[in-house]
Amino acid sequence: MIEVIVSDRLGKKIVVKCLEEDTVEDFKKMVSLQMGGSSYKKLVLQKGNSVLKDHITLEDYEIHNGTHLELYYS
């Protein structure tokens, strides 16, 4: 289990527990449950300047314990 920090542009910050083997789509589903409301399909996650694609695992993006991701809404 790893903990990933997700913050949106409104200043809301959450910590999501997940596995490195989870896909970005699976991770978005967990984020949408914790954020309360928005459909995971409307969430866009970024690490640095790159937008994360749904079918790739967190491990492939080198997302580990304590990694910070930015959340945007489409």
TrEMBL record:
Keywords on record: Ubl conjugation pathway
GO cellular component: cytoplasm; nucleus
Transmembrane segments: none
Gene3D superfamilies in the record: Phosphatidylinositol 3-kinase Catalytic Subunit, Chain A, domain 1
Residues in Ubiquitin-like domain copies: 2-74
Statement: the UniProt record of this protein carries the keyword Amino-acid biosynthesis: no
GO biological process: cell morphogenesis involved in conjugation with cellular fusion; mRNA cis splicing, via spliceosome; positive regulation of RNA splicing; post-translational protein modification
InterPro entries: Hub1/Ubl5 (IPR039732), Ubiquitin-like_dom (IPR000626), Ubiquitin-like_domsf (IPR029071)
GO MF term (any one): protein tag activity
Protein's name in the database: Ubiquitin-like modifier HUB1
Organism: Vanderwaltozyma polyspora (strain ATCC 22028 / DSM 70294 / BCRC 21397 / CBS 2163 / NBRC 10782 / NRRL Y-8283 / UCD 57-17) (Kluyveromyces polysporus)
